[in-house]
Amino acid sequence: MPCMDKSMRFDQTDTVGDDALMGIAEMCETFDVSARTLRFYETKGLLMPRRLNGTRVYSKIDRARLARILRAKNLGMPLSEIKAYLDMYGDHGEGRVQQLTYVIETTDAAIRDLEAKRAEIETSLNELRLINQQSRQALEAKRSRTRDKA
């Protein structure tokens, strides 16, 4: 299970006021990302911070979006899928049911894939353990015969 990073903790308990804005430096520190990363996400249409006097400012919605972006990225989701997921939300949350349905379908599929991989890994581990045990026994038998001859 992946460790909980800053983005996941922040998403669960955003202690900054609802209407509080953050500058780029605060966002970088809070989410442990670089300014370049934030600008990259902006060019990809994942983040859309407002500008006050030419300076990027991030709202609670921007912080929630970044937390979701980072969580999805940590789970291996490509940016194109992250964007599609975020775009489902709509301007006022009208796509939330569609978004949740997508999350359920996507996570169900990922869980199935990981469980299948885990089963394959268990099979491989069991086979490797058997080979290891047989090799140790063969080596011990060889060493015993060498000692008996000496």
Describe the structure.
The structure is a single chain. With 150 residues, the chain is mainly alpha-helical. Helices cover 69% and strands 6% of the residues. It is built from 6 helices and 3 strands, in the order αβααββααα. The protein has helices at residues 6-12, 24-31, 35-43, 60-74, 79-88, 96-149; strands at 22-23, 50-52, 55-58. It has a 3-stranded antiparallel beta sheet. Helix 1 crosses helix 4 (60-74) and helix 4 (60-74) packs across helix 5 (79-88). The protein is elongated. 14% of the residues are buried.
Core attributes:
150 residues; mainly alpha; three-stranded antiparallel β-sheet; 6 helices; 3 strands; 69% helix; elongated
Secondary-structure blueprint:
Blueprint: H1 6-12, E1 22-23, H2 24-31, H3 35-43, E2 50-52, E3 55-58, H4 60-74, H5 79-88, H6 96-149
Antiparallel strand pairs: 1-3, 2-3
Helix pairs in contact: 1-4, 4-5
The percent range for helix content is 55-70%
Distance between the termini: 53 Å
Largest sheet: 3 strands, antiparallel
Tell me the overall shape.
Answer: elongated
Outline of the structure:
The protein is built from 6 helices and 3 strands. With 150 residues, it is mainly alpha-helical.
